[in-house]
Design a protein that fits this description.
alpha/beta, TIM Barrel, 8-stranded mixed beta sheet, 4-stranded parallel beta sheet, about 20% strand
Length: about 475
């Protein structure tokens, strides 16, 4: 019999009869990779005990759009429009030939560094997302081989697959954005991704699974999306497709297909139950109905949307329509608690205060992600479920009478103390084994600074860096 570990805390979020429940002064018993007991009064033998005191023992968060690089979206926070600030390839850059702006070892480091950040924020299951703006084309199998090794070593539960695309966005010096295509290249990369998927699906004792990630819908061709849908169906793997997130996307899809993005997915037979759709901020009522009818999942990324002046309209409405909603971070920091808090605020701004409660957003971060992945063993603490656990410290927090409301009002990712995945304690007291947080942060910053220095190459008109990223205040002179 595997050794048992008993965890106790002031609060435990368990699961009964299809719903989360709160146990005050509760217990969780881990046996091997699974949860054996949740509640109180366990009278069996245990090999170890951990008392977390003033804390909540929570199911681990599921991040369906998990940042896995050094986030370039934060560079656009005060720097717009995107086409002027290196977020769209200029024609001159395409003419000279796009190139990789990071070396292979830098890409491998980024994945490992990002995975550690996810764990630090209590994310136990992740579907990585990275920008293709600084890439030669799509993501490579080689970097995902490294990602699989990093996830296995760190203990993260991950769904992995390199992003593929058959096209990209290009702008002229006046900001006229158009799509350019290389379908043959994109389809070839999809076949490589499919081979990778078959090789890694189920490794690390089942912690690492395959996924498919066609990039932005406005630059994916019908052939790529249909082929992706068919391969994923054969494997039972999820597909994540970014769509309905920007006016430029809506224009390009309408020009190419005469439809909205989700309408087009449905028309070509690619909108299926295993499809995960970030972000939906530009979706119409009819498109939300299509998502609901297909049984697909809307991936809500409130923090990154709000940073750029957008929001889902609205979370409560989509729930009323019967849409399954999961959450994604999709930006730095990968703070799922902050993400939920912003989600609560924007949902109330979109409708009214009483349209959403804390447990609705918490469900999206746990049960919604589990449903999206067809994993009833994730997103909950119940006997037989995977022992994926996030412990949030409340000892320095002003607590409300309810732990979930405390998370929504007073906590942050920095309060995550311990993380267990598959019954393994992957972070204890904020420390991840064999990860030097300070050294890795310095290395990440050096890589990011190097990328910023290359921005003029891929920015319309090739202005100097200081004109691309204007400072908040004038730099003081000595």
């Amino acid at each position: 019999m595997p050794a048992r570990t008993l965890l106790t805390a002031r609060w435990v979020i368990g699961h009964q009869d299809g719903r989360h429940v709160v146990h005050e002064n509760g217990e969780v018993v881990i046996e091997g990779q699974n949860v054996l007991h949740v509640g109180a009064g366990f009278d069996g033998e245990v090999a170890a005990r951990v008392d977390y005191g003033e804390a909540v023992i929570s199911p681990g968060f599921i991040d369906l759009d998990a940042l896995s690089d050094l986030d370039t979206t934060i560079l656009g926070y005060d720097n717009a429009p995107a086409w002027k600030k290196g977020r769209v390839w200029p024609e001159s850059y395409v003419a000279r030939g796009p190139y990789e702006m990071y070396e292979p070892e830098e890409l491998a480091f980024q994945k490992r560094h990002a995975f550690a950040q996810l764990i630090r924020n209590g994310i136990t299951t992740a579907l990585p997302i990275a920008s293709l703006f600084y890439r030669e084309w799509g993501e490579t199998v080689a970097e995902f081989e490294a990602a699989a090794a990093a996830a296995e070593d760190l203990g993260l539960r991950a769904y992995l697959g390199p992003a593929c695309r058959t096209g990209g966005q290009v702008t002229d010096d006046a900001g006229n954005i158009r799509a350019v295509y290389d379908e043959a290249r994109g389809l070839a990369e999809l076949e490589q991704a499919a081979d990778f998927a078959k090789r890694i699906d189920g490794i690390a004792g089942g912690r690492i699974r395959a996924m498919f990630a066609p990039d932005r819908i406005e630059t994916c061709t019908e052939a790529l999306l249909q082929r992706t849908a068919d391969i994923a169906d054969e494997m039972g793997a999820p597909v994540r497709q970014h769509c309905a997130q920007s006016p430029v996307e809506l224009r390009l899809v309408a020009e190419q297909h005469g439809l909205g993005p989700i309408e087009w997915l449905e028309k070509i037979g690619a909108l299926r139950p295993n499809w995960l759709l970030p972000h939906g901020t530009q979706a119409t009522e009819a498109e939300f109905q299509l998502i609901a009818g297909a049984g697909a999942t809307l991936v809500h990324c409130p923090l990154v949307s709000a940073r750029h002046g957008g929001m889902l309209k609205s979370f409560p409405k989509c729930r009323r329509m019967g849409i399954n909603i999961g959450l994604g971070t999709d930006t730095f920091p990968a703070d799922m608690i902050l993400n939920m808090q912003i989600g609560m605020m924007t949902a109330r701004l979109a409708e009214r205060m009483d349209a959403i409660r804390s447990e609705d957003m918490f469900d999206a971060a746990t049960l919604g992600g589990a449903q999206a992945l067809n994993r009833p063993d994730l997103g909950r603490l119940a006997p037989g479920a995977k022992a994926d656990i996030t412990v949030i410290d409340f000892s320095r927090t002003l607590q409300t009478p309810d732990p979930v409301q405390t998370v929504m009002t007073s906590s942050s990712g920095r309060d995550v103390r311990d993380v267990w995945i598959d019954g393994r304690r992957v972070m204890a007291d904020g420390v991840i084994p064999d990860v030097d947080e300070a050294t890795d942060a310095a290395r990440a910053q050096a890589q990011f600074d190097g990328l910023i220095a290359k921005y003029p190459d891929r920015t319309a008109g090739h202005p100097p860096v200081e004109d691309i990223f204007t400072p908040s205040y004038e730099r003081a002179k000595a």
